[in-house]
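Q: What does the assembled structure look like for these inputs?
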Amino acid sequence: GQNIDQPTEMTATEGAIVQINCTYQTSGFNGLFWYQQHAGEAPTFLSYNVLDGLEEKGRFSSFLSRSKGYSYLLLKELQMKDSASYLCAVENDYKLSFGAGTTVTVRA
Amino acid sequence: GAVVSQHPSRVICKSGTSVKIECRSLDFQATTMFWYRQFPKQSLMLMATSNEGSKATYEQGVEKDKFLINHASLTLSTLTVTSAHPEDSSFYICSASGLAGSNTGELFFGEGSRLTVL
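A:
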């Protein structure tokens, strides 16, 4: 089975940094994705990790430790538009299993 | 980047009717398309995997006779919710991959279709 855990909610102030953790226990692993989803919209791709380490892409970075079944998404220089749900998803056998999502609220 | 278009974006229907949702890959050939369902404040749940020219593979607990999936071409997959009931009201999202799986590092999502069954 698939078990993917991430916090339900996080709040941070504009300009700050927030780290969203994701732990997983899955029957297989081909990679880990992070998606951003605004309310009522489809998810949009943020990052993909398949090897251990940090992947940096502008204000967003994602880290993976396969031995620990752990990933995090780091959001820097938070902007109001970053208020959204962030979904951690594990790929196994060409299918994605999603965590429940972390709702990030950015306050002025 | 690649574009996946989903239609309709919003549909309201009466209980007992059938609703068809289309998912099109606009600028690439999608050998595999995935259909997800998302209830309010919950995560996306994979319903089925659709491969062009063959029968869809349904996830456990998803009724294949109720959720009919057709992937007749490399650019179009359809999901038909038959005899819809209020509990089928949900956000349905398709995604598409141009290769065998998402090992490109990216899976392209449609805009989603919000179904409300009265």
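The radius of gyration of chain B is 13 Å.
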